[in-house]
Design goal:
By secondary structure, the protein is α+β, with helices and mostly antiparallel strands. Helices cover 45% and strands 20% of the residues. The strands form four sheets. It has a seven-stranded mixed sheet with strand order 3-2-6-5-4-10-11, with helices on both faces. It has a two-stranded antiparallel sheet with strand order 1-7. Helix 1 (2-29) runs antiparallel to helix 8.
């Protein structure tokens, strides 16, 4: 019994050290993903073109809590599902678009145009009340402004031929442009988004809890694809199993003593 307990503790600490030793490496080599810049203020004087082909600055647009996302219009992967998810959650959330918050989608592909932006927007505002559609804005821009905004929020992407490898998620901005929250993935609960918007209104920056995708997957620069980080996942599973076995042994021993 004592040997088994010692073995479990060894597995526990090996798994824990595995996770801790991997984290700094990932932060150093990350080329695609998110680098959180919570509480930083984005550069508000950057200029972009709206879907109506007018030149606008972020300072003009951001005057309330803003849900920011990055896409490119020819994306064959996550961009369309992300925008569909935004559309669905905007329909379900117990807040008024245009009054309580607004949505801002920026293309990080310099070849995208206002005409493409308008066409793409029309595909995803079906769930939005027509009068509120103006409060979901699509922007395109040049390389200088795109690089400035993606760098400011920590959105890391990489060109792979005609396409891009990039992460998926939302950034919440306060009315004065401060980064207050990151929501990762493709699906967002109305309650989570509502709380993030309320925090943004107050200017309260909160750390992200759900980082499953960022945690489990690494980018392979040579294969230009995302690969499962076996070491990190194995460490997590080892840790989890060790804890379960340890608890099981304690419960079993306790029951044996009661029977005796």
């Amino acid at each position: 019994m004592r040997k088994i307990t010692i073995s479990i503790f060894i597995l526990f600490f090996v798994g824990l050290s595995n996770l801790q030793s991997q984290e700094p490496i990932v932060k150093e080599i990350v080329e695609i993903g998110w680098l959180e810049h919570l509480e930083d203020t984005i550069p508000l004087d950057l200029t972009f073109n709206s879907e109506e082909n007018t030149v606008v600055t972020l300072r003009e647009l951001i005057d309330k809590p803003t849900v920011l996302s990055f896409v490119y219009f020819n994306c064959p992967g996550v961009c369309n599902p992300l925008q569909e998810s935004i559309s669905r959650v905007a329909e379900k959330i117990d807040m008024e678009l245009g009054k309580d918050y607004q949505i801002l989608t920026i293309s990080f592909d310099v070849s995208d145009t206002p005409a493409k932006a308008q066409k793409k927007k029309n595909n995803f505002i079906q769930n939005i009340v027509k009068e509120k559609a103006d409060h979901w804005m699509y922007l395109t821009g040049d390389k200088e402004n795109i690089d400035a905004i993606t760098e400011a929020v920590g959105f890391k992407y990489k060109a792979t031929g005609l396409d891009f490898a990039h992460p998926s998620g939302l950034i919440l901005l306060s009315p004065d442009g401060k980064i207050t929250r990151y929501l990762y993935g493709l699906d967002f609960l109305p309650f989570d988004l509502k709380m993030a918007i309320i925090e943004a209104q107050k200017g309260l920056a909160k750390p992200t809890i759900n980082k499953v995708l960022q945690y489990c997957f690494n980018y392979d620069p040579q294969g230009q694809s995302y690969t499962l980080s076996v070491t990190r996942v194995t460490g997590t599973l080892t840790l989890f199993i060790a804890v379960l076995v340890f608890l099981g042994l304690i419960i079993s021993k306790s029951r044996s003593k009661k029977k005796a």
